[in-house]
Amino acid sequence: MNIVKKIISFVYPIKIKKVPSERSGALEITLVNGKLVIDSENANYSYGSLQKVLKKGLLHIGADKLKKLENILVLGVAGGSVIQTLRNDFKVNTQITGVEIDPEIIYLANEYFKLSNTIDLELITADAFEYIKKPHAKYDLIIIDIFNDTKMPDELFESSFWINIRNNLTNNGLCLFNSIYISKKEAKRNQQLANDLTPFYSSINRIKTHQINELFVLER
User: Fold this and answer.
1) Cβ count within 10 A of residue 182
2) How would residue 218 be classed by pLDDT, with cut points 50, 70 and 90?
């Protein structure tokens, strides 16, 4: 990477590449504070503030517990920053399956972040909501990070989706769900989700982080 650009990026962001996406609108690779990030028009998709948000959820689960997991599913891979966090920060070397609907994001993840070089990682280009309907090997941890720019699909708050999530978890399996709320309506929506999930999980922890993000940490 050009050292001059890297230094300048500490003063203001430098756009490296812009890619049109039918699913996500315009996607940009930007150099910020010496590091590459993936952004949509209004949100960070990978390797920026989002990575810090999801790391906070993983810290809540705990490094010791994470290292004991045998099978992890990531719904909404984007650039794969949470996968790199698991590998590099928590030294989790277990099998990871990543599902991402947008092939353009996968292209950027592989081209600029070498995600495809990650050992024991299976990347699947598919609709996460369809994928989770089908029977798979049970997962010890399911990470849900599905957005369309700053919008959250309505399916994320439907009971059928959460039944499928629970059915794909091992006994005592964990789920880390990243949501956002800006308005009172969205705050009420998140509270209703917590109420709906309470009968089906032994524990539900909600972590407010990064102003608009709220993480749900669920244990079956």
Assistant:
1) 10
2) very high
